[in-house]
Amino acid sequence: MNFLQPDFAPAYPEIFLLLMVCVVLLADLAWGEEKPHLAYLLSQFALLGCVLITFATSAPGVVYTFSGMFVDDALADILKMMVYVTVSVVLVYSRTYISTRGMLNGEFFSLALFATLGMMVMISASHFLTLYLGLELLSLSLYAMVALRRDSVGATEAAIKFFVLGALASGFLLYGMSMIYGATGSLNIARVTEVIQTGAMSHTVLVVGVVFIVAGISFKLSAAPFHMWAPDVYEGASTAVVLFIGSAPKLAAFGFIMRLLAEGLGSMVADWQGMLIILAVMSMLIGNIAAIAQTNIKRMLAYSTISHMGFVLLGVLSGDGNGYSSSMFYVVVYVLMTLGTFGMIMLLSRAGFEADKLEDFKGLNRRNPWYAFIMLLLMFSMAGIPPTVGIYAKLSVLQAVLNAGYIWLAVVAVLLSLIGVFYYLRIVKLMYFDEPETDALILPQGDVKLLLSANGLAVLAFGFFPQALMAWCAYAIRHSSI
Amino acid sequence: MTEMQKLYLLVPLAPLAGALIAGLFGRLIGPAWSHRATIALMLVCVAASVTVFMDVLKGNVYNGTVYTWMTSGDTRFEVGFLIDQLTATMMVVVSFVSLMVHIYTIGYMHGDPGYQRFFSYISLFTFSMLMLVMSNNFLQLFFGWEAVGLVSYLLIGFWYTRPTAIYANLKAFLVNRVGDFGFLLGIGLVLTYFGTLDYAAVFAQAPQAAAQTIEIIPGSRWELLSPICILLFVGAMGKSAQFPLHVWLPDSMEGPTPISALIHAATMVTAGIFMVARMSPLFELSEAALSVILVIGGITTLFMALVAVVQNDIKRVVAYSTLSQLGYMTVALGASAYSAGIFHLMTHAFFKAVLFLGAGSVIIAMHHEQDMRKMGGLKKYMPVTYWTMFIAALASAGVPGFSGFFSKDAIIEAVHFATLPGAGFAYFCAVTTVFVTAFYTFRLLFMTFHGKPRMDHHTEEHLHESPWVVTLPLVILATASIGAGWLIEPMLFGGYFGNAIHILPQHEAIAKMAAEFHGIGGMMAHAFTTLPFWFSAGGIFAAWYLYMVRTNLPARIRQAAGPLYTILDRKYFIDELYSWLFAGGALAVGRGLWKYGDVIVIDGFFVNGSARVVAATAMLMRRFQSGYIYHYAFTMIVGVFVLMSVWLFV
């Protein structure tokens, strides 16, 4: 048996991160008691290392390795970079929060890094099995993170729901993949594309496979009607974990969609376009309307996420490069806004106080005008009010929808997002026009202070200069294996 | 960027910098440094304007873009400058009068709590006005147009604790809205049919556009240019206070006097005149628009002058005089004598500024008493004010040798040559008004400065000449009021305006006048044989006879005239009509829309109705979110079923 040494270079970031996770675990075991911040610092170091390695190993063009199971292209590099940055920011925002709740230990960080590794594998997968491997690594880490607060009934309940429904979604996905395999005889994405183009297989089997795959992906994106887990998990899990779940994995899920739908099943646009329209409309409808009835801000943001994912799907369903890049732009902007918003919730929370009720934002302007202003920018951007970047994100996906010829869909999307403006502006109203219920001081750490301000201002800055980010997304899509 | 381009930029930006300094840091640097800074920057502005003017005299005309604001489709929205003879003239007049008013303000506003704010506003005004005149496109013109309107609004209501000031600035704002609406519609038509907002491009296409017709009311086709020009002129009517949109200008006298001089006499109100002259390539092609202009100008000239005769408030006399003089300029435009209109604009800017600033000087001395019936005999107390105002009055009345004579006579002659419908009426108004103008101007002079003092003893004791910051601008401007008229030969007949003004051969009134023009001396000598001169002399004589010799006569005339006097005193009841028709009508319509449209249909059905639907749906969805895993799993399976059925059934 001759064993061909595969080219490891494209996977260096993954390998490095895996090693670093082991280091974090061991270090925490050895010195965790005395130096609780060690795991945090090592994790940040690991992410920084990943950034450098990804940067160093990024090569123009598309490189396959591990017998075509793993791909390294511009899309992978750029999405991974964004994942590193996002995870790093999440860790900065979460540090104080988890330390006051006794979770500042190796578990949290190693799970976060494992999840990151899963996302990286998903993003770089060019084979159904690698895709699934990455997805499960991510999902299992997330289940465990939700359950991290063992003594909290809400967290445990959320974890069980998340796990059971996630297992169901994984089942859907695997079943769909097996259908595709049955029809095309391959699990390799590039190969699947080729076979589908020849048209020598049962179309029915393929479409049944696509339905199950789309359902599985929708669960990850929390698009309606596969969204039911999101509000409960958002409410039950600790804010730091929600921030983690709500941010970076969406980038990975976008990569997943690109690999699977856009690339693998790209020639079946006509079949999955209709499905995505239904999912998008339902997501925007349910997300925006149900958010109005919420009193818990985390729950409200869960619905807000659902509606944003509807918008992401709008970009994808147009089925061309412009649509994909506008969708990617939307995801990136969404992650930026989510980071800031949850960062703000954690900023306001203290030991024994979660700041997850809408009332907790009352009169924030009196307590701290600067953070109220940052939150105002974030809410404006979420609602899509110029000059923040949110309007450009919405505008670009709507443009893609119009290009695809669905004028009615664009109208529906605009009307539904108009309803959504209400609950974002309600927070602004609470902050600026209501009397504060507490006068507790807001004393963030220096790095959080700086990062959160930068985060809010970035929303404004990208609103003035959206072109750079847009060009980046377009570049990623154009120089990928799609 | 060349040296000249930098200079062009400097002209508007210097006052803007002054406005920012006085506005943002005024409290920090104090009143003295605020006026020093703004005046220093105004000096820079004047120097730059004069340099540009000299450069233009050498024949260097500039038209170019400074900054592209945005591009929408094929339409570019730009900031650009068109520097030619017309612009340069306006730049010098605006910056020079503005500088004088800046200096004068030091004396007039001394000790006012809003001192710095005032300087900031007048500098801001200068910036806006310069942007307006220097523009090379309609967009920037409109920007300047609105900006000067805004500053005018702010300044009329400068003493914002006075209810009358707030009423006046609101009125000015609303009336200008009517004009600006027409103006904007005109610009919209230009953009629609020419596809560009750039002057040069629009003017180049104008001859072709003249052949086009459009159907505004179904069944009747109009020449395209007529509605465009008339709508643009509606804008000019608002800004230059032409009948029937003149009602705001007399009330604007609620603002501080320097403002009345700068904005409501010398510069802003002439923006409409300038705009029409600038658009001469368009207006020339629409005889209908020119006729409208002639008639409107004629009405304003005569009827506003008549109102001035019965006013007793010194500032209101000057205000109505301004309206009447603006009517003259408008008549000139209608007669295609654009250069005469601009010439009168310039001379008027100087002598009217003197009249206003002089009136202001009197008002300071009288401790803010404005009623002429309580003045009299001020000549011996305020010689400088008296003599400067005397010169301005002579200029205003059109006495040969003074600037007003040359410019007004040119207009009357031009109208005489005009052949358009309405020209006869305009000529009648223009000539008759000469008498009225001379009469009310000297009535003002006699009532204020001559005769027996009628003020109370306390006021008389404190009468004294105003400080030098007030009298210096008066003297300088009075000198200009004499001198400016002597420029008639180069400005009107010497081809001074070059290509800046475009006149069709059949409208060449000025050219016909040039043929008969034999030097300034000849013009003055000839004046003694013409009707306007004798009208002017008659007016002065009548004023002298009624207010110096037979002082009991005016009261008896008033008695005898009865209703006629009431009509003039109440300004033809136009304010009452507008209040009843527009304010009352708008209130009635508004009440109807509020009660039936808003409360029942919009609030009741659409707003609250849709809010109720959304809220109900939200509650329903909340119920679906039961918390049970099997419900959730079931939903997911139903979802897969739905997706599957899309493919199966569609």
Automatic annotation (TrEMBL), chain A:
Q: Where are the transmembrane segments?
A: 12-31, 38-58, 78-96, 108-125, 131-148, 160-180, 200-219, 240-262, 274-293, 300-317, 329-349, 370-393, 405-425, 457-477
One GO molecular function term of this record is: NADH dehydrogenase (quinone) (non-electrogenic) activity
What is the membrane topology listed in the Swiss-Prot or TrEMBL record?
Answer: Multi-pass membrane protein
Please give an example of a GO cellular component term from this record. endomembrane system
The UniProt entry's sequence similarity note says: Belongs to the complex I subunit 2 family.
Query: Catalyses which reaction?
Result: a quinone + NADH + 5 H(+)(in) = a quinol + NAD(+) + 4 H(+)(out)
Q: What does this protein do?
A: NDH-1 shuttles electrons from NADH, via FMN and iron-sulfur (Fe-S) centers, to quinones in the respiratory chain. The immediate electron acceptor for the enzyme in this species is believed to be ubiquinone. Couples the redox reaction to proton translocation (for every two electrons transferred, four hydrogen ions are translocated across the cytoplasmic membrane), and thus conserves the redox energy in a proton gradient.
The UniProt record lists the keyword Ribonucleoprotein: no
Q: What is its EC number?
A: 7.1.1.-
Listed A to Z, the keywords are: Cell membrane, Membrane, NAD, Quinone, Translocase, Transmembrane, Transmembrane helix, Transport, Ubiquinone
Q: Which organism is it from?
A: Nitrosovibrio tenuis
Q: What is this protein called?
A: NADH-quinone oxidoreductase subunit N
Q: Which domain of life is it from?
A: Bacteria
What main location does UniProt list? Answer: membrane
Automatic annotation (TrEMBL), chain B:
Q: What is the protein name given in its UniProt record? A: NADH dehydrogenase subunit L
Main location per UniProt?
membrane
Q: Name one Pfam family in it.
A: Proton_antipo_N
Q: Which GO terms describe its molecular function?
A: NADH dehydrogenase (ubiquinone) activity; NADH dehydrogenase activity
Record's subcellular location:
Endomembrane system; Membrane
Q: Does the keyword Plastid apply?
A: no
**Ranges for domain NADH-Ubiquinone oxidoreductase (complex I) chain 5 N-terminal:** 69-119
Which PANTHER family does the record match to this protein? Answer: NADH-UBIQUINONE OXIDOREDUCTASE CHAIN 5 (PTHR42829)
Limits of the NADH:quinone oxidoreductase/Mrp antiporter transmembrane domain: 135-417
A Gene Ontology cellular component where this protein is annotated is: endomembrane system
Tell me which UniProt keywords the record has, alphabetically. Membrane, Transmembrane, Transmembrane helix
> Which GO terms fall under biological process for this protein?
ATP synthesis coupled electron transport; electron transport coupled proton transport
Q: Gene3D superfamilies this protein is in?
A: 1.20.5.2700
Q: How does it sit in the membrane?
A: Multi-pass membrane protein
Q: Membrane-spanning regions, if any?
A: 6-25, 37-57, 86-106, 118-135, 141-160, 181-204, 224-247, 289-310, 317-339, 345-365, 386-405, 425-446, 467-488, 531-549, 628-649
